[in-house]
Design brief:
Length: 323
């Protein structure tokens, strides 16, 4: 680029202002004074932003000038679209997948032979926030019952659940009064999934939330569960909800998988006119990360694991995802 002096020429001309130019090898982190370093960094960031905007404007003008002949817009590179190919990605027309789905533990639900009935329980002696979270989760999942566990082992709860026709067991674990784990066990034969839970927001902590949810059966949206493992997890979530959503309630529960994090949101949509639809979040919201998938019902000692997340072995690339 041009040097950082004034515009050159004879002394009579006023100097033309020039943009800040750092030497090519200069790094802001070399400045010893903290305040100066911070100031220069902000200035550099500002410059980057300006250049980016100018380039964007220039591109837009060029596109407008070319009109119909403009080249198609470039697709930005993201971690998702650069994803490492997974050989277990499900092809829905695959006969093997169809056979597995017809014979897996969720087949009775999908064939409408069972009606979901869910027991939501907690770790031993839960505290306020976990209790409220369980109550709100029960308003999202129809036909679910909250039971607070007082020293009763999960091994003893499961046979009682099966005897009383419960189809699923959800256990919310907590650490220092904050919900931090979720176990989902499909009864009577499993499987059992262990999730790490984070970013829990209760109803009152959500800005611009809608009125309390109604008793209607919500729609369920499952996004992005593409591999065999993801497919199993998606089927697990689907089987928590009754089959026929009552669209009149306009409520929708979404499990959105992105980079192996499952984001849960619960919304109501509102028709403002024939063409405009708004959505209100009802809450609660939370994020799940699968830690393991186990065959059969909960058995921490002798359980056979189908999949365990081993970070050091599995997360070799930031673009590798398992669900």
């Amino acid at each position: 680029g041009d040097g950082g002096g004034n515009g050159g020429g004879t002394g009579a001309e006023p100097p033309t202002p020039q943009r800040v130019l750092f030497p090519p090898t200069f790094s802001v982190s070399e400045i010893k004074n903290k305040q100066r370093r911070h100031f220069m960094f902000l200035r550099w960031k500002q410059q980057q932003r300006k250049e980016k905007l100018a380039a964007k404007k220039k591109r837009r003008k060029e596109r407008e000038a070319l009109g119909d002949k403009a080249p198609p817009k470039a697709i930005p590179k993201t971690i998702e679209n650069q994803r490492v190919y997974d050989e277990t990605t499900v092809d829905l027309n695959d006969e093997e997948v169809a056979f597995d789905e017809a014979t897996d533990e969720f087949a009775p639900y999908f064939n409408r032979q069972t009606v979901p009935k869910i027991l939501i329980t907690t770790s031993d002696r839960p505290r306020g926030r976990t209790v409220r979270f369980c109550e709100q989760l029960a308003t999202v999942i129809p036909n679910s019952h909250v039971y607070y566990r007082r020293g009763l082992a999960l091994k003893r709860i499961i046979p009682q659940c099966i005897a009383r026709d419960f189809t699923d067991l959800i256990v919310i674990n907590e650490d220092r009064k904050i919900p931090n784990g979720l176990i989902l066990s499909h009864l009577p034969d499993g499987p059992t999934a262990h999730f790490r839970m984070s970013s829990v927001r209760l109803r009152k902590e959500i800005k611009r939330k809608g009125k309390e949810p109604t008793e209607h059966v919500p729609e369920v949206i499952l996004n992005n569960f593409t591999t065999r493992l993801g497919h199993s997890v998606g089927r697990m979530f689907a089987s928590l909800f009754p089959h026929d959503p009552q669209f009149i309630g306009r409520q929708v529960a979404t499990f959105h998988n992105q980079r192996d994090y499952i984001f849960f949101r619960f919304h109501r949509y509102i028709f403002k006119s024939e063409k405009k639809v708004g959505i209100q979040e009802l809450g609660p919201r939370f994020t799940l990360k699968l830690r393991s998938l186990q065959k059969g019902t909960f058995d921490s000692k002798f359980g056979e694991y189908e999949w365990i997340h081993k970070r050091r072995e599995m997360d070799t690339s930031r673009r590798k995802f398992h669900l």
